[in-house]
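Page 42, continued from yesterday. The earlier attempt failed because a stray header line got pasted into the input along with the sequence. Redoing it now with the clean sequence only.
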Amino acid sequence: MKELGNKFLVSSQLSYVGQTIEHATDRYNGHLETSIYDSMSKKRSWFENIMHKYAEYSGHDTPSEIASHIRDLFEIEVLQVIKAQETNEITQKLGGQAEKFWIGWTHSQFEEFGFNYEEGGRTGRMTFRRIDPILLNDIIEQSLLIPKKDKPWQWVIRQLPLGEVAITKNIKEVYKKYGVNSYMDIRYLKLADRIKLLSEHGYEQWEIGLVLGAQGESPTGSFGTPERSRVSRQLRRWFAELHDNIDFASWQEELISNRMKALIERGYITPSELATHFEGMNTDEVFNFLSNHLSEYLKQILISLYRKGYVSASQMASQLQFSAGYSKIYAFLTKIDIDFTALKQEAGLLPDSFIFSFEKKAATRLIKNSLDEKDLLIKLGYKEVYSLSNHEVRNIINTLFDGMSYKKAKNFYSSRIL
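This time it went through. Structure tokens are written below.
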């Protein structure tokens, strides 16, 4: 076994089976000449592209030296001679059958055994050989780490012993369900999917960049502000490849907002509950996002808690399972426009006046695991539930479930996927 430029390994067990009406040596020399002298990969057959790769890594400079080197790699053997028949069509058919037999015999259509791209039997030039889809996907995944300016497509071509046209055809075949026509098409799709998923989960720019392989670590191994800035810039360059004239921060804000609104609609109310659905955000960061971008929703949550008897920032923080954030809740309460005097005057529990839509959504989710009406109200954050009369409890339940009793609502929502 010989090694060429630490790149390609050639084994005596690898075979190439072909049919020709010429002398076998003439056919081989034709392949060799095209592989060395023709600089346009699309004019070469796939086998000639393999020979061309060997030529590139041979370590020789002149065409004659390269040709001599490649000749040493292959041994020519005539496997079968087909006698001329009454017509060329019959002769070609027999030749195709023989080719198919010998390719099957040597298993040369498989990469570990040879260089034939298919089972054979056809006549004429074939333009590409199938690449193992796992290998192709792995190489494309690696190429995502290469910036566009460094020509990642050329890097992909150098990793495979095929020409540009053959590799492109393989890309179309492997990723045909995505409708791609080129390497750049699948590159954009893969980058777009990864960036969107990580952005939607609330990861910061430098964190997304690191996951995608951007380089920013300093020689000392520390990872401070300069390195984070470098990685963030790389992410924005990738994003610019995908989206023209769109600000990344605004785009990510919209993604997170939409995700949070969808979760709220499903009854996930508190920052701690929401944080379990954002891999890149903790409870503190979720609260900050709500405060800065969904302040009206956060305001409704706090008003609801206030009317339920949680009147201090620390009480609200405890009820929201955000005990360390009472100072942030206090700061938010001082800046929003709420008439707490009017709220205090609304003595008693008045369901119609303070039950918000998000509470109804939460009720439909929590009723499935509740024990009874009062247990449900406790799960929803109602204070001193056991001091309420049965009439007051029923009023709240009826409002939460649009007139249904607790029993009917539990049966209805427990039988559905919410």
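Notes: Strands lie at 2-4, 8-10.
Reminder to self: strip header lines before submitting.
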